[in-house]
Amino acid sequence: MYYPIDLTVADKLKIKISIADRVYPLTIDPSREEGLRKAAKSIEAMIKQLEQSYAVRDKQDLLAMCALQFAAKSEQLVIDDSADVEQAKEQLNVLNLLLDKQLS
């Protein structure tokens, strides 16, 4: 009997990421490793900054504040991109009108 090898499982990488004094074992695609490690470093740096700036010592509170800042940054990027797209559409409409005028 033939059993095909599941390449998706065989191609996975097992790593450990440390965040807020806890280790999280992950099984990931190798292409995601660098991004995950950079994200963990960013979280650790933000936690350290928050600890120094505020009198918060509870890791749960620090992680919540960290999550809020990252989510806000992500949402702001979406808002900014949306505004840029709208501006580009308006400029394309103006150019289209000018071209129509010239071609008529």
Short description:
This is Cell division protein ZapA. The chain has 104 residues and is an alpha+beta fold. It has helices at residues 7-10, 33-53, 59-103; strands at 13-19, 22-28.
Name a few traits of the molecule.
two-stranded antiparallel ribbon, Cell_div_ZapA-like, alpha+beta, Cell division protein ZapA, cell cycle, single chain, Cell_div_ZapA-like_sf, 104 residues, 2 strands, cell division, 3 helices
Describe this structure in words.
This protein is an alpha+beta fold. The chain has one domain (7-103). Helix content is 67%, strand content 13%. It is built from 3 helices and 2 strands, in the order αββαα. The protein has helices at 7-10, 33-53, 59-103, and strands at residues 13-19, 22-28. It has a two-stranded antiparallel sheet with strand order 1-2. Helix 2 crosses helix 3 (59-103). The chain is elongated and about 70 Å long. The N and C termini lie far apart (71 Å). The model has no long low-confidence stretch (mean pLDDT 88).
Query: Describe the biggest sheet?
Result: 2 strands, antiparallel
As a whole number of angstroms, the C-alpha radius of gyration is 23 Å
Strand content range:
5-15%
Q: What is the typical, i.e. mean, pLDDT? A: 88
Oligomer: single chain
